[in-house]
Amino acid sequence: MNKKDNNLKDGNMDHSKMDHSNMDHGKMNHSNMDQGNMDHSKMDHSKMDHSNMDHDRGAMGGHAHHHHGSFKEIFLKSLPLGIAILFITPLMDIQWPFQIIFPYADVVAAVLATILYLYGGKPFYMGAKDEFMSKAPGMMSLITLGITVSYVYSVYAVAARYVTGEHVMDFFFEFATLLLIMLLGHWIEMKALGEAGDAQKALAELLPKDAHVVLEDDSIETRPVSELQVGDVIRVQAGENVPADGIIIRGESRVNEALLTGESKPIEKNVKDQVIGGSTNGSGVLYVEVTETGDKSFISQVQTLISQAQSQPSRAENVAHKVASWLFYIAVVVALIALVAWMIIADLPTAVIFTVTTLVIACPHALGLAIPLVVSRSTSLGASRGLLVKNREALELTTKADVMVLDKTGTLTTGEFKVLDVTVLSDKYSEEEITGLLAGIEAGSSHPIAQSIVNHAEAKGIKSVSFDSIEIVSGAGIEGEANGHHYQLISQKAYGKALRMDIPKGATLSILVENNEAIGAVALGDELKETSRNLIEVLKKYGIEPLMATGDNEEAAQGVAEVLGIQYQANQSPEDKYKLVESMKNQNKTVIMVGDGVNDAPSLALADVGIAIGAGTQVALDSADIILTQSDPGDIESFIELANKTTRKMKQNLVWGAGYNFIAIPIAAGLLAPIGITLGPAFGAVLMSLSTVIVAINAMLLRLDPK
């Protein structure tokens, strides 16, 4: 990984200026911080480079099957051809009641089979080509071998009937069913995996399409963001997203960087402070000099990290692909041995029958469905618990997890300011009275912290005290008159005296003062989600080490970490989190990453398993393997259970799906013929059908324990 520009690190930005005393209570509008106010419909994504994105990490055999066409479309178009073949060609050389056999039906079947082979078989023999090019024949090669042998031999059988008059059994029925089942299995798998979202496109949507450039005469020119240059001065109105990285040269405001850096509090920004493109301006107007554009910008560097992460191959081995690879080599070797041996023992026709039977028996009907059917069932179960599984490989990897890296803001915590504690510091007042005074003095402000105090009082059913006048105290807080008394709500720093009280770690503390005497205090902060504590206990039970990595400041991070009893890393930029995950993977640890913000996206993509909180950013959702739609970290426990049970079912189905092949192939080749035991094509077809049914039933038995 290349060394990134230092501007990427939010550690260079001053996040320490959050102080209740400096808040403009009268102007701040919380709605301006709403990411949902952006008009994404007008954004230009045409310049995004998606060429490096690997959207199919979980595809069977490790190949991007979508390169060879849509399995759904190919299956649906192939289905009529396959059904027609089933109706006009006998199974096991026996005409069944549902079949219609007429003169030259076999010729018609041969024509239909040729069309089906060329169209329906294309993704498989193209996939086999990819496998051979990479010197790793597997599932696609095995399927191609099966359909090719059954098709070619069946065409030969039809030709032999009309040229020599000899009746030779064909495999058109087996050919058609194999091809249709394989197409269906891959369609099920692709549907279960889902199409990976475009994380880079979602990142681009954080930036507005146009910027308001300030010219030398102070007039404003609207210019596309893509045309901005270093040194341009741009005006950012209240509630707008910042178009580019830069330094404030005029104005002050509070900027919400939570989606980008993980900093939970809106950050006070003044002249000479840095702002990041994609962050949301509060109520003030900012004039920003552009310092970075193009691939040096914060968002562009995050895009690069995501691209690098998604292009890295997973360490997990695809078991089904390995089994198919073994079967391929075994089938080919055994078939060649059978051909030579029976030519010596008997004659060429006998040798061909044993050889073809061996290769047809190797067709992976059940093996091809073993994984997709379990994934389909697992996906449905997960969805019922608020878990969206985008990459089935993540299920197996979770059972091997060593460490889980957890974001703080919006993941372990709510990401919203709430009243953590109201403390009474005077015998003259009760907690209810202090709460009423706090709500009353903050009632006229739209600031999110003020609103959290008002909401706290309403939730407690406490009526706000009516203030006659409220004024801002410069550099300290606010003051007002109520019932003939003068009150101030100021920061602990502005109060300047020591208080005998316990302050929650990382909390913002404001003191309610009457006549220079502290009568109460309110602690506000980012509240832990109810299920976070239980999640940590569950992780420890499964032997998974929890580690919190947050873009938030040291004090806030330490407070949450101490409550949960876990290790932590604070002030983490996207690159820091990326390097943290990368270093653990380099130590051969299997890493799960859980997060919700843009700053989590690269590490979500790089981790062996990325779990995104559903209420987070689209970028994080697109980079992850698993999405928690209910944004509840407690659902991770259900996911771990799902992963363990799904992996167990996959292994069971692989045994059922491939086990009969390892037994049947040698017998089909005539190994037991000297003692009178042979396995003809008809019995082989029965074995294949039985194995497929067992695999399907076993998949449907997958269950989750009730909550």
Automatic annotation (TrEMBL):
Bilayer disposition of the protein: Multi-pass membrane protein
InterPro entries xref list: ATPase_P-typ_cyto_dom_N, ATPase_P-typ_P_site, ATPase_P-typ_TM_dom_sf, ATPase_P-typ_transduc_dom_A_sf, ATPase_P-type_domA, HAD-like_sf, HAD_sf, P-typ_ATPase_IB
Main location: membrane
Region feature (Disordered): 1-51
Domain of life of the source: Bacteria
Matching SUPFAM superfamilies: Calcium ATPase, transduction domain A, Calcium ATPase, transmembrane domain M, HAD-like
Reactions catalysed: Cu(+)(in) + ATP + H2O = Cu(+)(out) + ADP + phosphate + H(+)
Subcellular localization(s) per the UniProt record: Cell membrane
Compositional bias segments (type: Basic and acidic residues): 1-27, 37-51
Coiled-coil boundaries: none
Regions that span the bilayer: 74-92, 98-119, 140-159, 171-188, 323-345, 351-375, 654-677, 683-702
Protein family membership: Belongs to the cation transport ATPase (P-type) (TC 3.A.3) family. Type IB subfamily.
Protein's name according to its UniProt entry: P-type Cu(+) transporter
